[in-house]
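Researcher: Structure for this, please.
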Amino acid sequence: MKILWGIHANALAYSMTLGAGMMNSIFNFYYVKLFLNRYKISETGFHVAQVVFMVWNAVNDPLFGYIQDNSRLKCCTRRQFSILYGAPLYGLAFLLPWFPWRLYGEGDWLCSLHLIVALCAFDGLLTFVLLAQCALFTESCPRHDSRLRLIKYSQVATLLGSTSVLFCGLISDNMENFGYFQVFVVLIAALATACMCCTGKYSTSQYEQREGHMEDANLENGNGAFSLASVVSLTKQIMTEKNFLCFVTMNFFQVFHLAFYNNFMMIFADNLIPKDVLSSSVRSVMYGAGFICPQCLVLLSHAWLKKFGYYRIILFSFYYEGVAAAVMCLLGQEHHYLLAFYVTTNMVIVQASFSLFNLPLADIVDADLIKHKRRLPLSSMVFGTNALFTKPAQSLAPMVVLTILNHYGYYNLNNVPGRPDISRSFLDLHDAMFYLVCLVPFCIAFLQILTWTPFSIQNSHLASPQ
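Model: Predicted structure, token format:
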């Protein structure tokens, strides 16, 4: 279906989930620095929060995935309703971290509880809404070319949404003016909720009557919609696929890599690049570019995706990340402009390639549908099972990196009055940060090349439209 000027109405409605991108970008980019530097959370409190979050993060994805694929409730089985009803709660959960529950003292236990609630609430609603969005991606477009169109529309929308980090940095002086920051995030929450409600109201799927089918079909489950046996059986079928295992292993490292940049890019830049080299406004542009440029890159690579397919494009990105990290490590941290360029471009490549991951997952859903002769695709279960194994990387990345930084004096540098032995602390800390910036991407790229190479669905872009 099209509307004025040849715009596809369904693709336009789907792309309005840009609201999720607006909130996710700000949340992931600022919450670590907020709790470490402003709220002064202890390392133990931070780790406890991340462990609780890691468990919840892993469990809620397959749980919500199974519910959305097998429940008889319309707010779950209809992807549009999941987005429409979940969006307002998602917006409220986004606001939780930015308003302290009291004036926190150093190592305050309530600060740790605040982080636990904020992370779990935000991720729970994010999962409920975005699982439905990912399922819509698979179910609204059955062919590769139509899915590329969805990617194109979605990236244009995400490009607009990703400017939230840029404007947030410029308006709040990179969170230095916290009052302005709080006003900005409230406006973002309201705008993002409105956009996602548009998706829920106007998007369509080829399985519009899914809930009707669910009344008549058991979906391999003869003991009720929520039988534990059916959950285990369906999950086992998904997990025994070689392509799924290759993808989920590679995706784990990608999520780790993305969390590494999202959570610590600002901290690394503040410490490795002197303020007289890059001003605050230039830094804001650099941080914003890390979220804006990936969408531009995906849009520019649209023709390449049609010609070469996502498999080769993703594999090339891994080789680029590994080579760039090795070159930067050899050049050293004294080249500040080159270091800024390297960090920004690497973040762009990681985010851009991650934006393509719905394509292999959709192909995995299609292959599962054909192999097991299902009436309906288990879209949410596939996406949810993938998240079961990859989402823990979102917690592992900040835990591992913070432990290493604190070992070299980051906590003392930010929390101990007088900052003793500051020159030596700076040297050791800067060296540790620089080698993290180089060696983490290099090792991850190497492991991803090993795990992505055996993936066998490499030519879905050549399949003839049906």
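Researcher: Any notable elements?
Model: Confidence is low (pLDDT under 50) at residues 209-225. DSSP finds 20 helices and two strands in the chain.
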